[in-house]
User: Fold these one by one.
Assistant:
Number 1:
Amino acid sequence: MSQKLIGIDLGGTTIKFGILTLEGEVQEKWAIETNILEDGKHIVPDIVASLKHRLELYGLSKDDFVGIGMGSPGAVDREKKTVTGAFNLNWKDTQEVGSIIEQELGIPFAIDNDANVAALGERWVGAGDNNPDVIFVTLGTGVGGGIVADGNLIHGVAGAGGEIGHMIVEPENGFACTCGSYGCLETVASATGVVKVARLLAETYEGDSAIKAAIDNGEAVTSKDVFVAAEAGDSFADSVVEKVSFYLGLATANMANILNPDSIVIGGGVSAAGEFLRSRIEKFFLKFTFPQVKISTKIKIAELGNDAGIIGAASLASQIESK
Amino acid sequence: MSQKLIGIDLGGTTIKFGILTLEGEVQEKWAIETNILEDGKHIVPDIVASLKHRLELYGLSKDDFVGIGMGSPGAVDREKKTVTGAFNLNWKDTQEVGSIIEQELGIPFAIDNDANVAALGERWVGAGDNNPDVIFVTLGTGVGGGIVADGNLIHGVAGAGGEIGHMIVEPENGFACTCGSYGCLETVASATGVVKVARLLAETYEGDSAIKAAIDNGEAVTSKDVFVAAEAGDSFADSVVEKVSFYLGLATANMANILNPDSIVIGGGVSAAGEFLRSRIEKFFLKFTFPQVKISTKIKIAELGNDAGIIGAASLASQIESK
């Protein structure tokens, strides 16, 4: 009888692996470096070799597993189990992934994009409490996410579902986004977006602030610097956090107003600001939601941290069984 | 073998009934007046009597049907098949609906709220082309709708899913909404919302306009008057349509940016403005969506008109089979 799951979190620097129980408990985990040389042609063979080595090491065979799940950057074709345009892996053209791993390991394989997979992880054993309706928002270099509605990950007609970073929160005077639009959430709530908001507000702020001084002096300022200063009482930095929270409150409220999830879970590097950020977002969230949503949808900070990828990937593998 | 579906569209003025094939073709339809006297206590017995009478008339028995579906105003409990707080039916307290109809007719029964049911109808045989990802927006006295994502109607944790009218499109200087928030889509895109936008713009518009003159004279102006004048070349009325379309373009774009449906279908009384309104909404929709969504999600006008309710209700009944 099949008893375990394998989750793989494929990133541009490392590939993380986990062996998990069907309940989502991590039993073993390891990582290897991602070798992106020669158009990333070593990546899939390296994954196969590492899996074979570890299964032998642990005395496990293909019959011990329900499936292998993987989260990948780039555009994922879930049916063909291929990845296209994953630039941080040097995979410009379409790369066969699932067919090779299934053939070499003999275990069923499922793949989805990394933000969707992280959403599955947080929903399964993280802040989402395994509820059928959970939205995950990741605030990092960009803003991404995944939407689980009525128990299903929402992909949409062209696979662009869950692109929370491209919700428009500043329709008339927004910053330009890499997508071609103006005023996307990503332009004001990613790590670089927070700094953009700080630069804009610095133009008109009058008063003492180490952060404003650093910006005006042309020093490198990070989103973390802004949050740390705001928590320490810098009122300029606080006004930046207030504005970023306004945008996040508006975007999360609009998602909740139409989808009414049990929770919206905030993850990614910027979410390290924790309760300080969560409570600020919630203030605006409560301003912009209607009564039934206010009392039923919660704003939470992600719980899984570094393991979200392998846990979510294992969750994807667990769904193979039910098909 | 079960071959047909019954759809019931329960409204405050009439109750519409339809007998449909499993493919969604209306074979018979009829309507009765809604008797809301005595706390609406006659409504369910009237439905039962009308169904029994018609089935006898057509020589049909319970074995000819897969199920009965119903769309209802108010707060619907889909599990208990009850309705609470449907004020236009005089149902203030919880009303048993499904248990009585199932007992009297011996046919499985399913119920959902009227906006969700209309969404199912448009998705099934209307503008939605039976695609698994379709959003329906109804612009009438209020703004409502339903979201079908990955084949499922999205209800959310407290049943508030699909409340598209309460998306915030004017976060800082919006009109007050009946829900308690400010700047909801409903306050600017419902029939009365369009007139509110006209009144606001009339304050600063300089130039000749019969619509502006009517507003300034305190005459009754409807959203239809505004659209008719705009199409006839009244530039004040045109500026109102432009502003309303901006809000609808923003709201539909933000839904598409996160859910990437095949289409967003616009229905309800205000949508009678047809292609004139659709193309205006699309202009802003294309401004506010990111590239993958621009080329994959379409803005459409609803096709089913008056029959949407019975067709959607029959669609709900058709899903009983698959359980």
Number 2:
Amino acid sequence: MADPSSCPLLTPASVRAAYEKIKPYIHKTPLITSTALDAIASSPDPSVYLSENPPPFHNVPTNGVEQGNDSQGSDDVPKFKLWFKCENFQKIGAFKARGAFHAVTRLIEELGVEEVRRRGVVTHSSGNHAQALSLAAHTFSIPAYIVMPTISTPSKIAGTRLYTNNVIFSGSTSQEREAVVADVIKEKNAILVPPYDHPDIILGQGTAGLEMETQFQEARYGQTGGRVQWKGERKEIGFDAVIAPLGGGGLLGGTATFFSNKYSTLVFGAEPSFQGGDDGRRGLLEGKRIEHVKTLTIADGLRTPVGVTNWSIISDKTKVEGLYAVTEEQIKMALRLVFERMKVVVEPSGCVGLAVVLFNKDFRDMVVRKQKETGKKEWDIGVVFSGGNTTMKALSQLFAEEKKTEAREREQGKIGLDGTRKVEDVAG
Amino acid sequence: MADPSSCPLLTPASVRAAYEKIKPYIHKTPLITSTALDAIASSPDPSVYLSENPPPFHNVPTNGVEQGNDSQGSDDVPKFKLWFKCENFQKIGAFKARGAFHAVTRLIEELGVEEVRRRGVVTHSSGNHAQALSLAAHTFSIPAYIVMPTISTPSKIAGTRLYTNNVIFSGSTSQEREAVVADVIKEKNAILVPPYDHPDIILGQGTAGLEMETQFQEARYGQTGGRVQWKGERKEIGFDAVIAPLGGGGLLGGTATFFSNKYSTLVFGAEPSFQGGDDGRRGLLEGKRIEHVKTLTIADGLRTPVGVTNWSIISDKTKVEGLYAVTEEQIKMALRLVFERMKVVVEPSGCVGLAVVLFNKDFRDMVVRKQKETGKKEWDIGVVFSGGNTTMKALSQLFAEEKKTEAREREQGKIGLDGTRKVEDVAG
């Protein structure tokens, strides 16, 4: 990988520069809206819309024009207009293509394509980064060596093999994987491209933020950039808030970097709370990065601890306003709403941002408070759907298991009436 | 309903007129493409991409430019560029909104809005037409009386109640439902809006065809309408073929009506074969409309026989080139590919067109033959995804059951190695 010391600074301008490099190779994924999800998110208890007999919306669209939410009443209910950035429609099905293409184009720029082709790139990953790096390398005829545990699911191995013949197996511990990577580096002089903790990766992922802001401005104001008159002040046009999933931190770190000079756009991160998967949130409470996480959350893309460089961004209150965590049940409820109401497939990891908006009480109370303070009636919030790589089989099992265990757990009081699972507090 | 004798003629011009009426009220749904699905459809055996360890594509995109399919070899493999019309993203989740808005705006035009408001509209439906009509009526403050069997699933009743308070229950036989409808008509003088067998409905559904053609022309040629030079001839720009699901026939009839003066665009219909659900195809073989169908196909929107008016269109060879049927397994395979590769939710009924393109041998052989005859290497084919109204629970059950019964049926020889279920011939 390019030496971090020679990398561009983590600034909005660097995200723009990254975008110019990767634009020809990635999809400009759509930014979509949903009247149904807006109504659900802006109702006092979104979980009622998961029942078999959901209540009607108060803001049914008529004559192609939405009615206001005002009739819905209480001041203590946050109001949202949701803008979903569909990175589930990105190449290889996840935002990871952005970082991988940026890392590879930067290597070519620094070392020349011949040297990169001679040496190749290497990483260890069993997930979306493996596919993303092999695609990016394949695009420039660069060999990609991907170290995967032998126990990886066949579909993920097959997905990676679509673009590279060099899948190398290892044991499943991180020591075993890293030993194999070290061998490849020694033998081939291959260049390591880590999955998230590197400036080039972070800047690449940040282009999702850049792209969604431009799309939002065009959709909402019919112009890119500029200012509007708002409550007697000239205000830069943009989102009121953006929320993205936090795993290793590449996506959230890059997004926060891009929005770091947009004072009117607050950036939030979303994590799974299961078995301590909310290491970012817990780290902020403890005042230091948590280095080890061991969780089997269904949000399998978010099981890793936050990386070192990413931590420096995420723990900077001027860049990231706050982190919020959701339970497994809340993630599944969000996934079902996206599936049934929007007809879109998002993987569990990709739904945690929406799950926070819909179900996290602290988050919703904070929004109500800020909406009162600023007199703003509704937030335009950008919600990143980070990926869609799941299978019918995996989702069927996820929701079939729920049916079996739900009744029992409800009896045992593990699931509240609002459908939220009560997990033990694993912080620490 | 407007007296058919006073209705516009079933012509492309009438579809255009219908579109002008309903345009303010419906979504312009996206026309999307998928490199992965193109590669799968253009491979010798698309079913191999359903396995846990699918082979790589031959036409992996590089540098943002697709490589040709030529390396894939055989002349006996059809080649497709697929253009998916996403009516699953339409209001109420299905194309039915088009016909319902057209029927209602036509009634207002003929009788005046006061009279329609005084009388109200009535239909019997437990499916998408019920929701579509209640939404259309609600939009113009017209009462909608929807007769539904008491045994309807709660979610469908709830969906209809989003827009009307007048859900009236009946027994589940068609006689019982029709008796209740007759009562409503007698009591309220309400106007019947049938689900598919009426010119206004047919013309409304046909606007899906109009819209997708315009979107295709813009995406493919950067212009709407006009001609291009092709093999020494001036050729009207447009799809080579379009395929839509066939149930009652409103969607296919309307689509075929719109394309009836586009000689270079062939229109095909797709049906489920399970328990004789392919009544259109069987009717063509017998030379007469089949009036009764009793099938429990998973494509539950396609269980009805073709309507009388629709039959006159569909049995006209100058309008519909042919009808093809697929098995339950083939529908499920298509659904899974759309879900896993495109990250889009389509209900089983909405997938039958794609299932034909991927898995129907007669259809694929016919395409190969026509591609050889015309020297055209690849077809631009418009595939209508007609709706997306399913639930996570329903799909989980559908695919969980499959897992249980699959192995057994494979042993018993009921499922071939290609995954197709061998059903008894129920024609007659």
Number 3:
Amino acid sequence: MGVAELSSPATASTKTASRLHYSSQLSLSSTRLYNNLRRSLRPISRARHFNISCSVNQVQAPVAVPREESKSKSDCYGVFCLTYDLKAEDETKSWKKLVNVAVSGAAGMISNHLLFKLASGEVLGPDQPIALKLLGSERSLQALEGVAMELEDSLFPLLREVKIGIDPYEVFEDAEWALLIGAKPRGPGMERAGLLDINGQIFAEQGKALNAVASRNVKVIVVGNPCNTNALICLKNAPNIPAKNFHALTRLDENRAKCQLALKAGVFYDKVSNMTIWGNHSTTQVPDFLNARINGLPVKEVIKDHKWLEEEFTEKVQKRGGVLIQKWGRSSAASTAVSIVDAMKSLVIPTPEGDWFSTGVYTNGNPYGIAEDLVFSMPCRSKGDGDYELVKDVIFDDYLRKRIAKTEAELLAEKRCVAHLTGEGIAYCDIKEDTMLPGEM
Amino acid sequence: MGVAELSSPATASTKTASRLHYSSQLSLSSTRLYNNLRRSLRPISRARHFNISCSVNQVQAPVAVPREESKSKSDCYGVFCLTYDLKAEDETKSWKKLVNVAVSGAAGMISNHLLFKLASGEVLGPDQPIALKLLGSERSLQALEGVAMELEDSLFPLLREVKIGIDPYEVFEDAEWALLIGAKPRGPGMERAGLLDINGQIFAEQGKALNAVASRNVKVIVVGNPCNTNALICLKNAPNIPAKNFHALTRLDENRAKCQLALKAGVFYDKVSNMTIWGNHSTTQVPDFLNARINGLPVKEVIKDHKWLEEEFTEKVQKRGGVLIQKWGRSSAASTAVSIVDAMKSLVIPTPEGDWFSTGVYTNGNPYGIAEDLVFSMPCRSKGDGDYELVKDVIFDDYLRKRIAKTEAELLAEKRCVAHLTGEGIAYCDIKEDTMLPGEM
């Protein structure tokens, strides 16, 4: 990257040109270690709001405003600025091609767990070299350097590139995974509508950036809250990336639900399978004990206390984060990072026969009668190719239907609140209840 | 464990009896989930100081004071209170025997990274089921519950037991690994002598506890500072465990030294080998660029700037933690945890041909002429059986000899400061300089 200045990719069609431009990075010599970093401190001048006018199912490519002289860059860090040919060396010649993993909120605590898992090879395997592209804010840029230093000092053989930056148009370049963790916390007195708007802005911009510069088959996992609606905003702003590729993380809810059923049934958690979280990552979410199984049997056959299932189980799952904050004084960064790893592994490792996993995905074409054009957590299976299919053989009863309808209604309401960010016109926000999960802010 | 009360193991010879007593744990039923925990809040009444009178090389078994009615216990947590027969199930019958890993300072940030690595199977392998025994203080017991909750919610298949407690005599029971991370930070105005004393007390007690209840071949890695002298105190108080089994962690220093040499030479860090840290984990430590290699060549042949090697390299390694605190605002918990994993792996995986690793170990019988009866970081190789041997083919020059002598003198001075804790009589403390590494407190 050196002293070359980049102009912003003006639209998605400039991707090729942008790529050519960026290729100069590959010749970076090792003598410029650290120095490159300074240049990325310059402010972004790109306008953050775009006019999008489109219908729900035919989203046009966003009209990007050219950056005037934007000089902010994502830059390689320290020892990760080196170039090398993995195919030229005995130890690395059998490795797969380098994979680009972009992470937003990279200076936060969840990332502080996640990045080291990614770099160690625990997630994508021992022959998968990794490039980590870390997105922060101007405020967190120093902290990002600290994270990069700790990654250097960890000597992970598979970690071959680390870049840090504050501009998603640069950090997301050629990303094959985008793990969108960063979001603004709710300020004092802020309503949920305000939170939807402030975070929606971020995810609209990041969607546009992904659309412009990421791999055409990038897998996006949205963790920052409200994650379902953020994922919806993101996919709406990235019309050139399959909507199917966007996920909202409900895996921690699934893991917690399995653990609570195991505790109640007196079995180890590996005996609980087929756990679906339906709907929103909020207090309207539905941990599904009708379809879940314990030792291969329906939960209701194993746990006879159906009153507990109907009246206490869901709350136990949802209060977990709040209880943790009380006890530990911090939010669940470590187990959230584990659940992101689980979500990634579920897409790259074939799902065990007869089982499934939950993830918030786009509802178009779903077989459950859930409203289309939402991001809704549903049961999925994967062949391990990065893709997934919705599970067909699930059953419903009135109780389950009614609760799914409630979380569906909430997501429809959230969608109305962010119409200005999804290209559907003027937002109308009538959300009254606070459905943020305890311990999440 | 249930309602049974334990008396303290009076000496190492009561171990068998103690084991029999503890065996009642194995029949814990799953219905007492969570409830057991409350009982561990009762105070410890055991006296903390022991009179030890012995010479350096003939340490007597410590005279333990029987606990009067001590009711504090380490207790299983939640879903980890279940019993199961791993040999009875298809998925687990080929697994190794459960290994007990005890961790002190378990509610701290280093542990928060380390425990999840241990539980994931990243360290000891995918067929090694693990029991984590977490040692905290009364103050941190709630936080320990939080850690245990996050471990539950992570659904690690290999993690089969989690116990939490505040009494090392219970938490270290049958431990095959003891990772001693917890230590008191230096208070305002506290001299290094004061720190040596306050932490020495902790490690004397933990040594006695290991001696009384841990596996006879437990591997102990001391991380809490001042770690070399803490490790010495610990091994002196555990005469029935081979002194060879005690390590002081200098692996993060080794990793940082490799990274700094790689940066200077413009090579990736995997090209740096044979890196020794000699001596104390303090500013007198000696990162050895005479014996280290880059791409198989002596460092001095690759890095021609010998002035940099002699005058800047060591400081760069040592200042790393301080720089990190400046940038990131926190200490290096993540990379410290990675280095603990590296240290463990170095003992259970054969050392690559021609290479070695650094660890602070007991000096008796060392071939380098270093004073005996210290814990001193030196170059080691392992066959992967948990044991190690000191590397013989290292070279010395005047510069290296002189610096090794300085760190050796420091460790001898530290040892004089803790004579009252190692059974060598009355302490005499004449340490003037503050040699704590930046960013470590």
Number 4:
Amino acid sequence: MPAFDPTRWVTGIARVEDVDFNKSPLIPAIVQDVDTGQVLTLAYMNQEALARTLQLGQTVFWSRSRQRLWHKGETSGHYQDVVSIHLDCDGDALLVLVRPHGPACHTGAMTCFYRSLTSAPPESSQSHPEPLEGG
Amino acid sequence: MPAFDPTRWVTGIARVEDVDFNKSPLIPAIVQDVDTGQVLTLAYMNQEALARTLQLGQTVFWSRSRQRLWHKGETSGHYQDVVSIHLDCDGDALLVLVRPHGPACHTGAMTCFYRSLTSAPPESSQSHPEPLEGG
């Protein structure tokens, strides 16, 4: 199993102005652990959340449920120190590489993506769920 | 640098019915290379795209620009074989672990996230852009 090398494919530079908040005021931000490669969570940033994130060096999101800025860790202490931020080709998604102070998920799980989706069709979902692993 | 272990934190099972298409008909799907840990792209799935993905064992998205189902690789040959799919805690984001047949990005880059965002404020962005690496 090769080591995770987050800088392997970085070949360009983007500016904050390149983030296309005109397309949508909320941009999805994938949060990934820079050391393990684990994807921790998907959250959203508006322009102010991104500005605060850059200022603080820790993740700040827009909470869609609470309709306010949300400094990740403000209640749990599980802040996420930002190592680098990457913008996708069409400027409407962010990848944020972090060193987390603790679990990312409000359930206490390290990552929000702790559930595997089974490929069992609904009609047989009560009997033999088959994980998609290897499928 | 530790090896990327995508199954490390998987502790539960989710069903297709757990994906909350009621919240939004389009669910963001993070596509990650299962071998390298590299995040390749963020795309969107509607219910049919997810069903086709599970059927085919390759990624199928909803193209927002073309407003149609899009079997990734259908023109480039750069299909993405699905190894496993993971659902987040609140059922509104997917993590798809894949083995890609080629670059994920339409630009030819391996990942769509090939640009680092600089933290230089707009007023000085013409002079000394500083990558956020290590910041």
